[in-house]
Each structure stands twice: as C-alpha cells, then as structure tokens.
C-alpha cells in the first residue's frame, strides 16, 4: 500500500450562525438571577503567601550570601561568640516584634480583601 492510496477524512465543518443559546434573551426570572448571583467569584490574590514567600526568600538570600565566603562565615562565628545574654535577649525580642508586625500587616490585608469581596456585587 502506497501513500498515494490514502485519502484523508473530510475536514470538520464550522457553523457560521451563532448557537441559539447565544441569541436568546436574558431571562428575568428569580431563578435566573439566583443562578447568575451564585457564579463563582474570581480568584483572590493570596497576599499572605506572597509576603511570607518574600520573607523566606530574603532570609535564604542573606544566609547564602553570608555562608558562601569563608571570611564572612568566620566573621559571623566570631560575632556570635562575642554576644552577651542581654544582646541575645534583645535580638529575640526584636525578631518576635517583627513577626507580630508582619502578622498584623497580613491581618490588615486580609480584612481589606474580605471587605472588598463583600462589597462586590
């Protein structure tokens, strides 16, 4: 059998007229209004994930920068050995305060998103 004997199937036809559903008028019934109102809302941007991802990326970038060079690594080791208990406590409180600030900002963004979603018809 050669390729000359092969006949291709006919090409699919395309309808030139719009389907009947596209030309139908809008149904003013309450059921149609309820169906239109229950349509899914568009996806929200997850700002908390963006903020946390950015924070972790910054921490990872700083860690890679600081640990990639022997001189910087030795400098950090010397600095950590010279820390006093009061300094460690101060840094721990600073980190805890930063996390509280970050969580508060994420909460505010979430409240704004929910308020905007509730106002959208």
Please provide the count of β strands: 0
The ordered H/E elements are HHHHH
Query: What fraction, in percent, of the residue positions are helical?
Result: 55-70%
Strand percent estimate: under 5%
- Average the pLDDT over all residues and give the rounded result: 81
**Oligomeric state of the chains present here:** single chain
Main sheet summary? none
Structural class: mainly alpha
Shape: flat
Give the CA-CA distance, first to last residue: 65 Å
Helical region count? 5
Determine Rg (CA atoms, Å).
31 Å
| Poorly predicted parts | none
Structure notes:
By secondary structure, this protein is an all-alpha fold. It has a domain at 45-121. It has helices spanning 20-23, 30-37, 47-67, 70-81, 85-119. The longest helix has 35 residues, at 85-119. It starts with 19 loop residues before the first helix and ends with a helix. The model has no long low-confidence stretch (mean pLDDT 81).
Write the SSE topology.
Layout: H1 20-23, H2 30-37, H3 47-67, H4 70-81, H5 85-119
Descriptive terms for the model:
single chain, 121 residues, mainly alpha, flat
Summarize this structure briefly.
The protein is built from five helices and no strands.
